[in-house]
Amino acid sequence: MADLADAGFLEQPHASAGRVPTAEAYRYYVEQLSGEAHLSRENQSIISDSLTGVTDVQEFMERTSHVLSLISHSVGVTVATTGPQNALEHVYFSRLSDQKVLAVVVTRSGVVRDRVLRLDIQQADLDLAARYINENFRGWTMGDMRAELARRLEQERSEYDRLMKSIEQLYQQGALASSEDTQAVFVEGAANLVTHHAGQVDRNRLQDMLRTLEEKEKVVKLLGAYLDTRQEAVRVVIGLDEALPASNLQNFVLIGAPARFGGEVMGSLAVIGPTRLDYQHTMSAVSYIARLFDKLLNESE
What we know:
By secondary structure, the protein is of the alpha+beta class. The protein has helices at 2-6, 23-32, 41-51, 57-72, 123-137, 142-155, 161-172, 190-195, 203-214, 216-226, 279-300, and strands at residues 10-11, 20-21, 75-80, 88-97, 100-107, 112-117, 184-188, 235-238, 252-261, 264-274. It contains 11 helices and 10 strands. Strand 1 and strand 2 (20-21) form a beta hairpin.
């Protein structure tokens, strides 16, 4: 016991408490897990029954949050992001009058959005801005396009001063905004933290986690901070205080993976719970569902 404590694997939270594993001990344990445990037929059946018949990303994510909470006895969290259906087909800008510009955005799904902006830009400059956006960003999702445009506005301002000034004005006035860019967040099983894990977590920290789960922006931030869209395997993060320092989440763990359809990341799925949970079982469930995502959506087409 002394050796484990000296190695940083055991700690005593307070004087009257026994010694418990540290976050470092759990990290070491996860590193030693080799191979992938197979889910029981019962759990595979639960997942199959829950997800069979899904027809779109949001439906899959909503059902997945529920089944993850059911299997893990913790919190199932999923985020559905915008994908190819929200990709840009083309933009068009037209000067209506002094101080008025019509901005038309067409996505590959056929959705047409138009806005009238209070801007004074000549038609020649509007045509140049539209040509630049269409040639450089056709096929990009709206969110990715705006992020890259913001970067280019900073880096290429001097090189294309007049063009970038027009694009910047259009950008700032919301010409390229999308009403579909909000991410859908699904959280299921918060009650599990109370019914299954109340004795494992300090009451104040438990309340902090419950408050965090009520704020969708914080849930998105958590998953975005710890799940890399380039990763292929399930990721286990022990101690979530780095992403949200003020939320007191160092005694919680996130086990998650991105969800892909046709090679495109369409969202992410994860289990959030206290550090004392069944890691191998939960990792297997997350991995199984992440792989199932592409298969089920292909079948629905």
